[in-house]
Amino acid sequence: MEIENFREISSHNLRTFRNHYVSEISGSLGDLGTFLPIAIALAVNETVSLSSTLIFSGIFNILTGLFFGIPLPVQPMKAIAAVAIARSFSNGTIAAAGIFVGACILFFSVTGLLHWFANVIPIPVIKGIQVGAGLSLVIAAAGKTLAPLGWIQPSWADNRLWAIAAFIFLIFTNVYRNVPYALIVFTLGLAFALVQSTLAANLPSFEIWRPFLVIPGLSEWKVGALDAGVGQIPLTTLNSIVAVVHLAGDLLPRVKTPSITAIGLSVAGMNLVGCWFGAMPVCHGSGGLAAQYRFGARSGSSVIFLGALKLVIGVFFGETLVGLLKRFPSALLGVMVIAAGLELVSVGESLNTTGARDIAGSGQGLIGDSEHEIGPMLSDIERKRRWTVMMVTVGLLVGFKNDAIGFVAAYWTTTTNPTYSHPSPSSTSSLDPSQTPDWPSAQPYTHSDHGPGRGPDTAAPHRHRNRRAAPHMPLCTHWGPDIVRRSPHRRTPPLIAAAPLIALIFCPRRRHPIPRPRIVGRRTRLVVQLCYAADPAGKRVRPGRQHLLLLAGAVVAALLNDGGLA
């Protein structure tokens, strides 16, 4: 039974907090690994007001917990923050960027464009965005937070030894889930920061918040909107709205999932209000939701608690907290971010099971075992199609560090065949997986391979240009194991076809044992072997965590090859 109205949501929040208050408090702190470093960096540059950021993000935390009933995070807008830190934006410039993005999201929400956009995105692409966002968190935490640490540097409270200890403790909590990992780690880090601040005579002091207005000038509007705001819009739309809604439905099915429009209005309202008072531009994020869920949050009470804490601290201490928060150990924050990223990566495991919305909604040909339902009886080719498109989305997102590139390339491949991303009953319920040959085993050409009215003997000559190289392979003008069967008159652009290789696994065999792509035919057609490299015998594979780990290893190895993490 779903919890949907305000009274039921309030009752759910109170009941959950009363019965599991330790887990809820621990979960509320799970997203601080992303929030604190960006907020502190912007406050140190005097780009935003730390007190205004804490107060308004706290208010937004409380409101989202009350109205949505899920641990929906309030995170920094990362694309805007990155540009603002690199170019030392003024208060007015970053406010203009946040207000511009908020106005655009408000327009998309009110006109229905956001809802339409979310409905046309295939589930494999959404899963790819989620997995890619998780891997991006892991890579960023490893490369920017943990890699600069020494064994005993930069201080006794922040070094690799503490990072290793935090990792060991994290593994321990995977077995004993009731241990409040985030609460313990945050308390330890805060104690370390207090000790160092005391030694440096830089403790926070009592200081009441004094509100002020930020009115951007004409030049600030231009720079903020064009240089930072435009790049944030696709990231906010895909990761902070669409991916969040789907992730909330996967993780918390008992609470009614907020609508796309509701989340869009929430993001718009936060920035159209807070940015005028010097607060940091914020949004919701799938990584933050996964983090808070991973560390124990199951209801809106967790973010209500966090919001109240932010509100009190921001009102009474404000800017004096900068020195204390700067001394919070990055080793502990980095491990928390990695744990959040891995939790987000794990949602990709349900792509070909009833955990995927398009499969669960079909209701056709369900198969299962004694433990759980596997899902519709998809053919092996259909499973590989879905898995490969998700992996390509992940590879492009991680390789180019841009959600929009991953989305556009993968979504474009699915538009020519709607039955690919949304399996129909005819394609799922009548197939026997045990009799379905794996690609590239022998498979005769059928009516669907050549289009209406064409058989293997009547097909046009140009349709057989690849038979000399791969006579057994169904005709396909795309990368991957028969990703989309489409007219050969519409060729795949070479850059799109080569994107998985360029973005993810292009590194010399002599240096890294990463599965190489297979080249088929006279044109370059790439087969991303990550989706079934763990099974060299060619047997039917149900993608799982080992494939995600394989992909993660490939990404890290590619970065090491380029010196990205060295």
From TrEMBL:
Q: What spans are recorded as compositionally biased (Low complexity)?
A: 418-437
Q: Which UniProt keywords apply?
A: Membrane, Transmembrane, Transmembrane helix
Q: GO molecular-function annotation terms?
A: molybdate ion transmembrane transporter activity
- Report whether Transcription regulation shows up as a keyword of the record: no
Spell out where the chain crosses the membrane.
21-44, 50-72, 93-117, 129-147, 159-176, 182-203, 224-248, 260-282, 303-322
Ranges of biased composition (kind: Basic residues) = 461-470
**A Pfam entry, by short name:** MFS_MOT1
Region: Disordered; residue ranges are: 418-472
Q: Which protein, by its recorded name, is this?
A: Molybdate transporter 1
